[in-house]
Structures are given as structure tokens and as C-alpha cells.
Amino acid sequence: MKIAIIGAGYVGTTTAAAFAHHGHEVFVADNNQEKIKAFQRLKVPFYEDGLEEALKEFIQKNLLSFTTDIKQIIQGCEVIFLAVGTPSLTTGEADLSYIKEAAKEIGRYMNDYKVIVIKSTVPVGTVNYVQEVIQDELKARKSNIPFDTVSNPEFLREGKAMEDAIDPERIVIGSDSERAETIMRTIYKEFRCPNIMCTSPKNAEMIKYASNSFLAAKISFMNELARLCDVLGVDVAEVSKGMGLDSRIGHQFLQAGIGYGGSCFPKDTKALAQIALQRNLSLGIVEAVCAVNETQAQWFLEKAENALGSFSGKQITVLGLTFKPDTDDIREASSLKIIDYLVKKKALISVFDPKGMEHVKKLFPGISYKTDPLQALTNADAAIIATEWKQFTELDWKSAKKVMAQPYIFDGRNSLDPEVMKNLGYVYMGVGRPPL
């Protein structure tokens, strides 16, 4: 089947690669000419493990192409996916301006029956909103071309997106049309997915927000619990391990740290809280999840500074800049809060990250960027681990200690073994873990 995808960002390109993998002919359009030119040169302008290789393969097989000609792909494909950005407004609401513009273009150019599928994360009711926008454009053209709108949220983990897109754990299809549902099932026929759920558009939209907010809640719960464990002299890592043995709870997302980030959890939890407030409801749990995440990094930094004595004039190394390993995404990354805090405290800052440094340079041009972890640690009074990259968890910390000025390790991801670090002669501080 010929599939159009509007939006050549993280979700759009990964989804395109997955459809091409399963034999569909996919056309990706975006109005960002530089981005499209990069894809046409077989270069992905962001990092996602395995994505660039997959795109090269499918482009060469003529299963995948990139263009700025949105009109052409709208008219040439029966199914059109919207995978444009929905960033947060200052109020926390989702910005639907890109969704609206894409819907207008569809209504302006569509020439026969289409299924319009919203892959972007959007507030409940957006499928209906898109339908109205398209209908208004058709009325302006004095046309009554039929179409259906569908919600098909993405559940991609950055760093594992190709795996999740090709072999999804679940597929949710929100549609009120039997015709559209049949077409969606045909699209996903070759996918080895054990769970395909068909429901209403509003239910599908809510499933996405509820899923991300619940996972964020698990993280914030453990981060808040870590603060109590810290006071009581309890090891939160052991608590997490014991909790995870309960099959009703599970181990995933129970690791305490310095907060979640990325393009989904911060945006979606805030948006869900705003959706409720607009209807005169207060989601106390979701609001608390956001509040804990906003303050977790500073709580940890204040503890670290107290242990070191002061950050002022000290050489501090930040290891890890991306919000998680195996991506170059720094959106809402805890490292940005850490660097901002250190700058205000007049620390001397050096950093290293395998993928995220070019992005951070645009925000903090005045700090020192190093080519490897040992170079970053040279003459450091303390190191703060902000992302649990393998380059740090598998680092030769015995050799690292020899180049540091003082052996302080502040592990914001509980990624190292405290006993091992103590035996190497480090002063080690994790999140919610008692000193040995």
C-alpha cells in the first residue's frame, strides 16, 4: 500500500522505516527543506540506533522517499499519517498549530477518499478537530470528497525506536469507521503484534496520555521515595528490587534518579494536567508527578554541593548530556538543569557525551567539551553522572581516579556499584543510597 507521512521528525521517520520494512511504499514529506535534503543524502539529522541504516536500505529499494511536495503525496496515497510536532505551550497545553496546518493542506489538496491517521501525541478530541478543519477546507472548495480520521498513537522508546516500530508490543487504532478500521488492519497485517486494540478515537488519544503519565508517575514515585530513603539510611535500589518482584508492580521504571526528560513524559504529563484544568478538574497525582520531576535534580545537586563543600571555583565534570542513553535527544534533559545550576554557582565545567554535545553547545557555549570521559575527568574535583551511558558504567574508574583532583562521584542515575567505588577510594553519593 502507498502510505504518506507528513512530518520527518523522530516519530515520522521511524514509522516510515517500519512500514517500508513490512513492504509498504512510503512517502515522507516535510516543509523543512534542509531536513529533507539531509534525508535525500542518506543522512539522518538526529541519532536513533539503527535508523540511518534502515532508511538507507529502504531508500535504495525504492520503498521509501523524502520530499517537500506535500500536495503530491496527499494526492498519491490513500492513507496519510500526521506525525508533526505538538510541543508544549507556556501553559503546558499541546500546541496544535502544526496539526492544523497539515489538516488544512490535506483538505486543500485531497482528490479522493483518504484515511487521515494522527500518529502525533494530541489532546483528547483532536481527531474530531482535524475532521472539522478538513471539512472546512473542502467546503471552501465546494467539494464533498469522503474521508475518515483515525487515532493511532505511537509507543516508541527513544534508543529502541526501530525495534518498537517494527515489532510493536501493542497497536491501538481509534476509529468510528469500519472502512477505515479495515484499511488500518490491512496496513498492520504483516506486523507481528500480539495486541491490536480497536476502540474510539477519544479512547485511543487518552490511552497515549495515560500510558506516558503512568510511567512518569512510577519514576517520580521512586524519586520522591529516594528522598525519604536518604533520610532514613535506606537503599532505594534494594527497595526497588524488592518491589519489582511483585508481578503487579514489575521492575520497569522503578529506578530512582535525577528525573525523567525527553520529548514525551514532560510534555504529556503537563498536557494531561492542563486538559483536566480546562474542565475544572485537578489531577493531583499527575500534578505531583510533574512537581517532583521539576525539583529532583536540584535536590540532588544541593546534597552534592553540601558534600563537596562548595561548587564555586571547583572543576566539575558532567558525564552525560542526553536525557537517556542511545539517543542524541537533550529535550528536558536533567543535564541542562545541572549545568545551569553549576554555572550559577560559578563552577568550572567540563562535559562529555557520546552523542549530545553539539546540541548542548548551542545552549552553553562557554563550558568545556571534551573528546572522551578521561579527558573530561582530568583535574576534576567531582564528577556528576547525568546519563547512564555504557561509556561511564564500563569506564576504568581505577585509572580515572588517578587523573582527578578529588575522588568525588555524584551518581545521578545510580549506575555504579557503591561498594566497588568505595573500594577504589572514591567518595560516592547516589540517589537515595546510604553512604558505605
TrEMBL record:
<dbReference type="InterPro" id="IPR017476">
    <property type="entry name" value="UDP-Glc/GDP-Man"/>
</dbReference>
<dbReference type="InterPro" id="IPR014026">
    <property type="entry name" value="UDP-Glc/GDP-Man_DH_dimer"/>
</dbReference>
<dbReference type="InterPro" id="IPR036220">
    <property type="entry name" value="UDP-Glc/GDP-Man_DH_C_sf"/>
</dbReference>
<feature type="binding site">
    <location>
        <position position="35"/>
    </location>
    <ligand>
        <name>NAD(+)</name>
    </ligand>
</feature>
<feature type="binding site">
    <location>
        <position position="267"/>
    </location>
    <ligand>
        <name>NAD(+)</name>
    </ligand>
</feature>
<dbReference type="InterPro" id="IPR028357">
    <property type="entry name" value="UDPglc_DH_bac"/>
</dbReference>
<feature type="binding site">
    <location>
        <position position="261"/>
    </location>
    <ligand>
        <name>substrate</name>
    </ligand>
</feature>
<feature type="binding site">
    <location>
        <position position="331"/>
    </location>
    <ligand>
        <name>NAD(+)</name>
    </ligand>
</feature>
<keyword id="KW-0560">Oxidoreductase</keyword>
<dbReference type="Pfam" id="PF03720">
    <property type="entry name" value="UDPG_MGDP_dh_C"/>
</dbReference>
<feature type="binding site">
    <location>
        <begin position="253"/>
        <end position="257"/>
    </location>
    <ligand>
        <name>substrate</name>
    </ligand>
</feature>
<feature type="binding site">
    <location>
        <position position="208"/>
    </location>
    <ligand>
        <name>substrate</name>
    </ligand>
</feature>
<feature type="binding site">
    <location>
        <position position="86"/>
    </location>
    <ligand>
        <name>NAD(+)</name>
    </ligand>
</feature>
<dbReference type="GO" id="GO:0003979">
    <property type="term" value="F:UDP-glucose 6-dehydrogenase activity"/>
</dbReference>
<dbReference type="InterPro" id="IPR014027">
    <property type="entry name" value="UDP-Glc/GDP-Man_DH_C"/>
</dbReference>
<dbReference type="InterPro" id="IPR008927">
    <property type="entry name" value="6-PGluconate_DH-like_C_sf"/>
</dbReference>
<dbReference type="InterPro" id="IPR001732">
    <property type="entry name" value="UDP-Glc/GDP-Man_DH_N"/>
</dbReference>
<feature type="binding site">
    <location>
        <begin position="155"/>
        <end position="158"/>
    </location>
    <ligand>
        <name>substrate</name>
    </ligand>
</feature>
<dbReference type="Pfam" id="PF03721">
    <property type="entry name" value="UDPG_MGDP_dh_N"/>
</dbReference>
<dbReference type="GO" id="GO:0051287">
    <property type="term" value="F:NAD binding"/>
</dbReference>
<protein>
    <recommendedName>
        <fullName>UDP-glucose 6-dehydrogenase</fullName>
        <ecNumber>1.1.1.22</ecNumber>
    </recommendedName>
</protein>
<feature type="binding site">
    <location>
        <position position="158"/>
    </location>
    <ligand>
        <name>NAD(+)</name>
    </ligand>
</feature>
<feature type="binding site">
    <location>
        <position position="121"/>
    </location>
    <ligand>
        <name>NAD(+)</name>
    </ligand>
</feature>
<dbReference type="GO" id="GO:0006065">
    <property type="term" value="P:UDP-glucuronate biosynthetic process"/>
</dbReference>
<comment type="pathway">
    <text>Nucleotide-sugar biosynthesis; UDP-alpha-D-glucuronate biosynthesis; UDP-alpha-D-glucuronate from UDP-alpha-D-glucose: step 1/1.</text>
</comment>
<feature type="binding site">
    <location>
        <position position="324"/>
    </location>
    <ligand>
        <name>substrate</name>
    </ligand>
</feature>
<dbReference type="Pfam" id="PF00984">
    <property type="entry name" value="UDPG_MGDP_dh"/>
</dbReference>
<feature type="active site" description="Nucleophile">
    <location>
        <position position="264"/>
    </location>
</feature>
<feature type="domain" description="UDP-glucose/GDP-mannose dehydrogenase C-terminal">
    <location>
        <begin position="317"/>
        <end position="418"/>
    </location>
</feature>
<dbReference type="InterPro" id="IPR036291">
    <property type="entry name" value="NAD(P)-bd_dom_sf"/>
</dbReference>
<comment type="similarity">
    <text>Belongs to the UDP-glucose/GDP-mannose dehydrogenase family.</text>
</comment>
<dbReference type="GO" id="GO:0000271">
    <property type="term" value="P:polysaccharide biosynthetic process"/>
</dbReference>
<feature type="binding site">
    <location>
        <position position="30"/>
    </location>
    <ligand>
        <name>NAD(+)</name>
    </ligand>
</feature>
<keyword id="KW-0520">NAD</keyword>
